Backbone:
């Protein structure tokens, strides 16, 4: 009854979000939590809010222990998953990598943006990119799922209908804002309270950010990507600007999006501009599109919770598809709006 | 000794920021504070932090009382300044309007974006747009200064060197983030704590925001403008994306900006991407520009404090020029970085 | 199958939190949402994050419509529930009042603190105060539940074991901090973003706050109560200081608390000091107690989520008891720690 | 013309605040900035917001270089100042230590709370505690000033009139909230954004916090001290509860405070409860006192900016006194209320 789940990187923000999601998922039981540090301690030492809710002790990352699970989520710095995943897959484990190791089909792009020679390029063709709205058909057979990056998820959902319809003149301009949890739990200048609070800043602009090639791979076109860090824990906005290759009526534009996302359980079209609180702790994306006929440009917006649809929630969604479970099983849809 | 200053709209965020700036300006003395509400109360009733620092009582807005000042700052909702300014100017007062009434040279654009027939279109040609980096030469003779909007200030400073050099293919894409103080002190859905905190949202996209025509007037080209509200009190980022009309080398691009802003006391060029904390409570703008040669695009960033260089500080800067005082007199440059 | 639920005051923060909780409660179905304003609009107009998740339209508050429900939650300003509850109870509805009307047993205390003559003092003896940790035995028969205030919940849970053991010399000193959602959704000086953000303030000190008599009723002794508003959405800390009436050993003190709360599903004892993030979106309280032998004083801390254990979650917990359901049914325990 | 200032620990939050204050102080010039790390780099590398405003390079901490200054501020971890200060004082430098090394008159209390044998206990009697409201008379002759801790400043200002009047039955209960900048710039669990934001927590309760003996030394009585960390950059509240040793009328209580602080330039009495935004970036304290006659208790509140009156501002204030300058010279009084 249910799947035995292991999480590597369980003490990080994404890892502990997976613990929370698994707790309300009827088919998952977390039987193993591993991390690069804290091994030997109760998980509730790293996260005191879990006292009384879990008896799990953090283990060191041991492939053999992980291989005994049915499903393993890898929430590790890039480079680590590529060394772990092959043997887990070969042992019959369904592997969902929340890091970057299997996202890019081109190992040279990986080397360029991540500064590493890919440890197992021969596995790249076997990985399925886990954005159900783009790759649902392939996920049913997946044994190795590359969970999308948060920015690529948001940008892709915002722009996909436009691009698929061949409406745009490239490059697109994707300006994004992200909450701070995307910077992870390791302390540094991007996540210290006093220098982050009540301040906002761009970073990784002009093609420098590692999510650039992933975004371009998803959309099949050039995208100028400008991420901004803003002082909130969760939440992400992708505001994508596309020059129109040909005129389109406002109603036609709305119809294009409505049709594309009509059957998507995790995409809610919005007539008004959404905010990130509308999707806080929810696995849904809210998408809004507006025409600026005067400037022959479309502005498309997607908001997500970067830890949910942008990370842990999406991983569970893709896992559900791969396991043949209902796609939304165990996933919170109701936002924590306050 | 010094100038007698009146402030209409003194209880609002911009008004009370002017009070603070005037307190450390050696040539200004606030002798009159007026507002649409709170008349008859001490200013320190509206702002208890001022107890013991000011004896000023809030008055109702009376043109004759204001006309007795040397300088009047109007920090009022649009439409009000246009009815007050003419008689004040005619009485010899230097008027600085921090609202929108005299920013647009075209009264039809005003009518379209502000929903009002301009009350005194004949005065529009006499107003000087108060962005010293763009209009310093005209400010020396000004008697009616139209203080720029916050977004137009940031976007213009980011893009100006590019546009002046004829480097861009339009429309530009200006994606901006703003702190909440720009929404003013009247309560509403855009500034209630629980629905603003820990959340971000776009608004007024696709040409809808009132600052669009002002930005386009400054730059002389089309600009797709996407503002976002983020949970901080002060601070604004303009991230402007420009497709290049012709190739440019990275060093040439840096030189272009360095040269343009070499003598600007309120513009600091940055080699790294700036954050809004770098200019918190400072009247300076920090500007950064980066080339994405692969995508033939330039990304230019300006950060300002929206209440300082984006409102009250800029008003004092322009006033200084108009009065023949040193341009930076009394203006804080050191940021409150924490 | 399941209970038909009505919520009066559904558009407020507590009301919409009840909507979220009901959505994951297997025995509840919200069939009616009423509010003083917004009647006739979809609930998702007030809360766009609910688009696609609910078809509910907001109705005006109609006792007859509410009387057709099995359970009605009243999340209304004080005075309203006292006028609605009697007829609902008489119609067989289980009524849970999240306001203050039925909390104080003494109608004179009600009149003094709430400025109203109680509309139905004869019903006060029939109301059961809904703090299961204090009144579980009476809740099983309850038809009218007075859901505790947020501060009284936290202060009571912190101090109860001490007081029950007769260890304290009164008055106690309860210093509390609260997030801003406790101030409700109506805009005012206590919940405007820019004047709330990055600032903290005491209010209602020296016996002035309305929760004072409720706290004293729960504990049966005088309590000096000092609430503070701090810039966060959710979360509450009660830090209670008690002079010892007789010496106690540290181990004995810990044992006292451990024993008192051993069987409480919603109270987690902590050896370290808890923070409000440890209970964010969880219905649990975390309690910590420390002895300062040198000063013959005990400091006891309870943290709760003011919208959960401090309001909507506690209402569902008490309802579960009154309906004979498992006490924690449908209630989230895992915190949203990030 | 002016004093040559050195700052040791210039890259920390207190150090860089001193840089900002010195920039607007007419008699100070920072000629030397030293720090344990970052030596050899421009100060503006550590703090990019200072680009264009300072040419200072960070030096390593060299007593001989510091000895060439007129005034040296030591903003270092405890233990360091005690090793540096004697030789600087002997060289004729006015030394202001913003750390804890010279605050406690009793070296055994120092050893107990700071875990160090005091390096120069013979200097303790020569240090003057730099709280002008308490020790102004001694400051005029001071050559070694022990700048008070932030909590002791706030608690002392709140309680002093009560204690001096012999009105209280001890121990007092001082419950405080502090912004995060008090935790310093070194990253750790108390200052990482995602685990600090939107959360509050007590710490160091029940006599454990190092500021306890300093508070008790100032007030000459026992004080139960409960600090809380809340999610804001700056700001501190001390809410002090005192059981009355004898009855007092409300008017008499107000008069007591008004008289005690009548001539204090940095203390503003308030009839209403103050918030920390009222003193943000100001060197003033706002003090409020309220009688709870029913519970024979007084609640006294002081709010300060922990980096200003709680650290750097107070250091400049005390220095002004020691140098015979006007006490408020160069110190901002106007708060940054938004």
Residues:
């Amino acid at each position: 009854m249910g799947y035995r789940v292991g999480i590597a990187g369980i003490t990080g923000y994404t890892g502990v979000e997976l613990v929370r999601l698994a707790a309300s998922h009827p088919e998952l039981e977390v039987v193993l939590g591993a991390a690069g540090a804290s091994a030997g301690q109760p998980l509730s030492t790293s996260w005191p809010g879990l006292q009384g809710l879990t008896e799990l002790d953090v283990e060191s990352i041991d492939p053999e222990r992980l291989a005994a699970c049915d499903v393993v989520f890898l929430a590790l710095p890039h480079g680590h998953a590529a060394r772990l995943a092959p043997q887990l897959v070969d042992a019959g484990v369904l592997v969902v990598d929340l890091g970057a190791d299997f996202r890019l089909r081109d190992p040279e792009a990986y080397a360029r943006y991540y500064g590493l020679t890919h440890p197992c390029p021969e596995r790249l063709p076997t990985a399925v990119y886990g954005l159900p709205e783009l790759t649902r058909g392939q996920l049913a057979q997946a044994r190795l799922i590359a969970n999308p990056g948060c920015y690529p998820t948001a940008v892709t959902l915002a722009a996909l209908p436009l691009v698929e319809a061949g409406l745009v003149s490239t490059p697109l301009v994707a300006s994004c804002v992200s909450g701070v949890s995307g910077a992870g739990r390791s302390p540094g200048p991007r996540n210290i309270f006093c220098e982050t609070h009540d301040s906002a800043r761009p970073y990784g602009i002009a093609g420098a950010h590692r999510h650039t090639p992933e975004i371009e791979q998803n959309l099949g076109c050039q995208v100028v990507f400008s991420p901004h860090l803003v002082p909130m824990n969760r939440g992400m906005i992708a505001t994508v600007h596309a020059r129109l290759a040909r005129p389109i009526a406002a109603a036609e534009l709305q119809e294009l999006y409505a049709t594309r996302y009509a059957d998507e359980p995790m995409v809610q079209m919005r007539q008004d501009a959404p905010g990130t609180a509308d999707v806080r702790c929810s696995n849904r994306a809210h998408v809004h599109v507006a025409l600026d006929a005067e400037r022959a440009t479309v502005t498309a917006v997607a908001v997500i919770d970067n830890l949910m649809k942008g990370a842990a929630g999406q991983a569970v969604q893709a896992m559900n598809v791969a396991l043949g479970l209902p796609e939304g099983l165990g996933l919170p849809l109701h936002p924590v709006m306050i």
